Sequence to fold (97 residues):
Amino acid sequence: MTKWELLSPELKVCSVIYEFTKIKKEKIWFSKIVKILDKDVSRSTISKGLDKLFDLGIIDGNWEKAERKWTRVFNIAGEANDFVKSIYENTKRGSIS
Fold:
């Protein structure tokens, strides 16, 4: 079992958001996260996880135009950046993309 498989669904979502916003410098939104994690986490679990991450202050979101439509784009909140960075670096999610 890999370290990635041991992560909770919420931490997998955090890791994907971190990878796209900090490493790849790309915008990330709900349907994009669902597509990336389709084999690991269900759509409803991702939705519930995002709600929990917002409540905990780990992520924030802004409404932006992406792919010609308005969507909520997610970012790691400044206070949680070091925490999520350490998760990303220790689980090597990038190796399963």
Remarks:
- Residues 57 and 77 are 7 Å apart (CA to CA).
- The chain is about 55% helix and 15% strand.
- The beta strands are 59-66, 69-76.
- The radius of gyration is 12 Å.
